[in-house]
Write a structure and sequence with these properties.
With about 130 residues, the protein is mainly alpha-helical. The protein is built from 5 helices and no strands. It has one domain. About 5% of the residues have low confidence.
Length: about 130
């Protein structure tokens, strides 16, 4: 049961990472989803650059420990998901890549905002005073 919970949390974590990485591609014209994605990006930056652990990581560790599993042991699925979510790369590189992905996505939002502001500026009638 605990192994299944660990796998479920890892799957959710993988989906969360995918949302953070490519979420901006699916939010155009959806203000609520855009706001949620921007919050996810800011959370990603905070957890990568700051001292705060990700709650999903803490949940994974809890369930893996309760299942009696050490890191990268247990079922094939658990091992594979661990390798995807936690690649065997230097910590500094994972941090740089994580922040770069977040900055890239925020850049997409900044570009959209810039285009919207330009469109609004050109759509306004000229002041005739």
């Amino acid at each position: 049961m605990m192994t299944a919970a660990a796998i479920l949390v890892l799957l959710v974590h993988l989906l969360w990472i995918a949302l953070v990485i490519i979420g901006a591609l699916f939010t155009r014209g959806r203000p609520l989803w855009s706001a949620l994605h921007i919050l996810a990006l800011l959370w990603g930056i905070a957890t990568e650059a700051g001292p705060w652990p990700c709650p999903l990581t803490l949940a994974e560790q809890y369930f893996e420990t309760r299942a009696g599993l050490a890191a990268y042991q247990g079922s094939f699925l658990l091992h594979t998901l661990d390798a995807i979510v936690y690649p065997n790369l230097p910590y500094w590189l994972v941090t740089v890549l994580g922040v770069a992905v977040c900055v890239f996505n925020l850049g997409i939002y900044a570009w959209r905002l810039h285009k919207r502001l330009l469109r609004n500026r050109t759509a306004q009638p000229a002041d005739r005073t």
